[in-house]
Amino acid sequence: MSRLRWIHTLYHWTLSWAGHSYAAWALFGIAFIESSFFLIPPDVLLIPMVLARPTEWLRYAVITTIGSVLGGIAGYYIGLGLWESIGVAIVEFYHLGDVMHAIELQYQMHAFFTIFTAGFTPIPYKVITIASGLFHVPIITLISASFIGRGLRFLLVAGLIGIWGERMKVAIERHFDILSIMFVMLLVGGFFVITWVF
């Protein structure tokens, strides 16, 4: 199986600078923008950073969670006050405009669970945060559901890697192509899931 070179290059590049002082800020930044408009999830940085410094797994998970939740709040206010100028363009970029009404119905029934599910799974969280503002979900619901959903996800990812450490690194290197394909499938699958679920 041919190696997905760009992903492999990104992986090793991230490993190489994980020890730099600005690495945590980069992780925070990616987590922030992914929650409001960016495509690539912060797991792409979180995983190699924890592999490079396993003892820092909890710190990295907390940084990612805080950045993601704050980015979700930014997404909320895009939906609340900047829908026409920014929000609709983001949603249409991901071809998810047709699911917005269905998301509104889900919010009317169980907003907390909807946000939690998007935060924990590959469902595009950015669309959910923008929709939360657009449909006037109480912001405390967004924040609490996001902290739990995103927190559990990033603690689980970082914790497993941090605990298994070098063994996990060897396993990832050995099965890198397959894991890369699975990651891309999860990323793309999240967009299909949201259209199916909603």
UniProtKB/TrEMBL annotation:
Keyword list, A-Z: Membrane, Transmembrane, Transmembrane helix
Gene Ontology cellular-component annotations: plasma membrane
Domain VTT: 40-159
InterPro entries: DedA_domain (IPR051311), VTT_dom (IPR032816)
Regions that span the bilayer: 22-45, 57-78, 139-164, 176-197
Pfam families tied to this protein: VTT_dom
Family matches, as PANTHER family: ALKALINE PHOSPHATASE LIKE PROTEIN, DEDA FAMILY PROTEIN
Identification of the protein by name: Cytochrome B
Organism: Candidatus Ryanbacteria bacterium CG10_big_fil_rev_8_21_14_0_10_43_42
